[in-house]
Input
Amino acid sequence: MTGTPLIRLTGAGKNYGNIIALREVDLEVSAGEVTCVLGDNGAGKSTLIKIIAGLHRHDTGTYEVQGEQVAFGSPREALDRGIATVYQDLAVVPLMPVWRNFFLGSERRKGFGRLDVGFMRKTTHGELAAMGIDLRDVDQPIGTLSGGERQCVAIARAVYFGAKALVLDEPTAALGVKQAGVVLRYIVQARERGLAVVFITHNPHHAYPVGDRFLILNRGRSIGYHTKDEVTRDELTGLMAGGGELEELAHELEEATGAHSPAE
Amino acid sequence: MTHAVAQPPVADPGSDERLARRSPLRRLLGRPELGALLGAVALFVFFSIVADAFLRAGSFSTVLYASSTFGIMAVGVSLLMIGGEFDLSAGVMVTSSALIAALTAYQFTLNVWAGVVISLVLTLALGVVNGVLYVRTRLPSFIITLATFFMLAGLNLGVTKALTGNVASDSVRDMDGFGTARAIFASDVGVLGVQVKITVFWWLLFVALATWLLLRTRLGNWIFAVGGSADSARAVGVPVARVKIGLFMGVAFCAWFSGMHLVFAFATVQSGEGVGNEFLYIICAVIGGCLLTGGYGSAIGAAIGAFIFGMTSKGIVYAEWNPDWFRFFLGAMLLIATVVNLIVRRRVERSS
Output
């Protein structure tokens, strides 16, 4: 992967008052790459997404899009630069048909403000099919789709409306094993289509198969930033779990049970 | 673009063949209006049997008239409900609108059309007030419009008494422009020898326009979206606040039209009228399949709801029953219609 990365954060940090939510984080992702951001709850993942998505401005460091320094004032500005964020809650309206959700907010119209319903139905079906989701009926309410499928519709929508970079906020968190597989396959699809993907997750088993780079956050700091050839899945899992911390925890638990059982 | 990766496993022609399996019947069952339609047919048959006069053309015209006076309001109210909000001030707003037109025209000795226009502007402003209060405070629209309901009800009586010394406005029958305004808002149209009130045609026109708006325009998409999930709608760039304010204005517009009908049908306006009607509009919308939680419903359903309302209110009279029973019937109808809607929707959801 050569050339300037699509998104590059250098030494980025963010404070909320006197709370340092994120400090000195580097991250980059180029077209056709997946960068995974891993971390436990409170590690600073959501702060990082919010900076990339344009919801918050970074306080320190730099944020470059295609080599140009930016400081987004709103998600709209980020969208205009081709950075689309798909949040966990998906931003879909459950009772509305799939195609209406797909085009919501960017409806295509023909004369007299009429919706071009035929075009939107066909496009929705086509775009989803191209991503490997075959819907029987784009008129069914999106609420009747499974969580994974809904996630995929949200991603397909972002791709269709010209996203160059996708930021996915824990897309597999609430899903079963099979559903998560669907979403992961979809992430690979997006990468193959030449998108840059930032994939936020706390599951190293989801991150490792699809990622090209891995950024591991802990307590607002980067505790590891590796390309795929630098780490193994086990190392990643270890890092993610805090490595030493996990061993300590196991030890502690052992001791605790050991100390308790005779007393009882 | 590479197509090497994971081509869709299912061949394309397959999708069409599977689509065909969803029968037209099931599609019909999925419509929000279905419960109301069944209810309307049942009621029609029922009253045709028990009331001989019911099927006469003249009485049917009366039924349609009663339906239209509520149906016009139900159009605006159903759109607002699909958008996820209530307007409890809708009933008295009709009276306010009528009073504004009648009082301004009379007090300033204007052509009644001037009163009509002033009333339109002020009534739309009332809608804006409701909408802006809702958007700014984020209080439930139920509370906000409950407050404006009482304020308007008080203003209607207070201002009318202060200006006329009476609880009704002075008659505008002899004023300039009354004839033309009456022709627009309150005339009779002969259809195949039967006199039909013009409000019936306005009602059908408004229902058609609202249906087109809901299903075939971007605004319609937005109305469903702000009712179904306002946060999601906002996240994809739908101007939620503007849509909601617009919906309150839509109710205000319908209130204005109904108010004008009152003025030009009766020439004087009783300032205490309209209280309680807001619930009847909501009932029409709910019988017609609008969800109380928003995001689902149709204007046609609300029209059928209004028709059920008209049939019941007049059918009881034609059947020569005590009209006191009307409200009981209305309540029962509401209960049955909502339960039928619920059952139908659950069945459709389970089978899909």
